[in-house]
Design a protein that fits this description.
mainly alpha; Lambda_DNA-bd_dom_sf; disordered N terminus; 62% helix; DNA binding; HTH cro/C1-type domain-containing protein; elongated
């Protein structure tokens, strides 16, 4: 599985991390055609693995009710703890930076803009 850096939404992403991921993020967004919708990534990965939400909840060590509340929009993915975010990154095989882009916490344009400065 890909390595997921445990960086909270309030921490600054380093310029080096931005540079390393800017081009890759753009290509992944095109390839996945999911924009910022992390729910689509989860559904896609569940289909690939043949998993239900119940199985994913067990893998993430969260309750099914909690995962459903994220999936149906009752809770925001932006509110998940760092530990759950890390497990989601591992499950989805994406970096923390990609997670932040897919949840809309930062835009791909912001990533590119900062990366171009360094």
């Amino acid at each position: 599985m890909a390595h997921c850096h445990a960086v909270s939404a309030t921490q600054m992403v380093t310029p080096t991390e931005l540079q390393e991921h800017a081009e890759q993020l753009s290509q992944k967004q095109i390839n996945l055609a999911v924009g910022r919708d992390i729910k689509r990534l989860i559904r896609k990965k569940n289909r690939e693995r043949g998993w239900s939400l119940k199985e994913l909840a067990a893998e993430l060590n969260v309750s099914l009710i909690y995962l459903r509340s994220l999936s149906n929009g009752a809770r925001s993915f932006r509110s998940v703890s760092e530990a759950i975010r890390h497990r989601l990154c591992m499950y989805l095989t994406i970096s923390n930076l990609e997670f932040l882009v897919h949840t809309g916490e930062i835009s791909i344009d912001e990533v590119k803009s900062v990366a171009m400065k360094y």
